[in-house]
Amino acid sequence: MPNGIVNRKDFDKITEQDVKLGILFESTLELQALLKENIKKIDERFQAGNKRFGKLERRKWFDKGLAAGIGAISGFIGGFFKSL
Questions:
Q1: Where are the domains of the chain?
Q2: Residues 35, 42: Cα–Cα separation, whole Å
Q3: Other Cβ atoms closer than 10 A to 6
Q4: Mean pLDDT taken over the chain
Q5: d(CA 28, CA 34)
Q6: Does residue 24 contact residue 16 with C-beta atoms inside 8 Å?
Q7: Neighbours of 41 (CB within 10 A)
Q8: Which regions of the chain does DSSP assign to beta strands (E)?
Q9: Cβ atoms of residues 13 and 1 within 8 Å
Q10: Confidence at 1, pLDDT banded by 50, 70, 90
Q11: pLDDT exceeds cutoff 70 at 2
């Protein structure tokens, strides 16, 4: 039993039901703790990605607004000089 893990062959050799249930319960608790840890890591990565994506989205809208503003100004200046 390396690291407290019981393989299937050894588990099948155990005849006492209380021991089997204890092993299954402990394994379930270990898996639950591992899942909680992984969910926490995933949530942290998701929040970091959301923050980064929000910055990119704001930058995209700023660039579009700036391009539209410059286009409007250059169109006005071009029209002004063309009318002269």
A1: 2-83
A2: 10
A3: 18
A4: 90
A5: 10
A6: no
A7: 10
A8: none
A9: no
A10: very low
A11: no
